[in-house]
Design brief:
- There is one protein chain.
- The radius of gyration is 18 Å and the shape is elongated.
- The strands form 2 sheets. The protein has a 5-stranded antiparallel sheet with strand order 1-5-4-3-2. It has a 4-stranded mixed sheet with strand order 6-7-9-8.
- It is of the alpha+beta class.
- 31% of the residues are buried.
- Helices cover 29% and strands 35% of the residues.
Amino acid sequence: MATNMNKVKSTNDLELKERLVAVNRVTKVTKGGRTFSFSAIVVVGNEDGIVGWGLGKAGEVTAAIAKGTEAAKKNLIKVPVFNGTIPHEQISKFGGAQVFIHPASQGTGVKAGGAMRAVLESVGVTDVLAKSKGSSNPHNLVKATIVALGELRDARTVAQNRGVSLDTVFNG
C-alpha cells in the first residue's frame, strides 16, 4: 500500500478544532488495589483540508485529552477537498478496520458513523458517503480513515506526476 501523505510542516498559523472520538478507562491491578487510567483518541482539523489524530494516556480524562490534542497537532496531513466533497472514492484498511469513502453530491451531508464522522467533519468534508467494514474499534477506524484521506489525489497532482496537462487527465 503506497502512501503519499502530505505532511503539514507548521501548526502555528492554523485554527484547529478538536473533536474527542473515544475515551477508554484502563485498570491495572496491583497488590495495593486497582489503579485506573484513561486513554483518549482526539481528532483535530481546521475544517479546510487539514486533519490529524492523536492518542493521549493519563491518570485523568482531561489530561489524557490534552495529551491527545498535542499528539494530534504533530500528526497533521493535507487532504484535497473540492466543493465540500472528496475528489474520488477510496478504500483503505488499518488493522481489522476497513473503510470506504465515496464522493457525494451537494446537500447529501456526511453519511458516516462515529469515529469516521469525526475525522471527515474535522477535515471539512460536508458531503460524503462512507462505510466501515470489519472492526468497529475507534482506534483502527480513525487510522484507516486518515490513511484513506491521505491517499486521495486531486487532478492537478495527477497531471504533475504524469507530466501532462489537466485536459489530458480528464479526456484520456
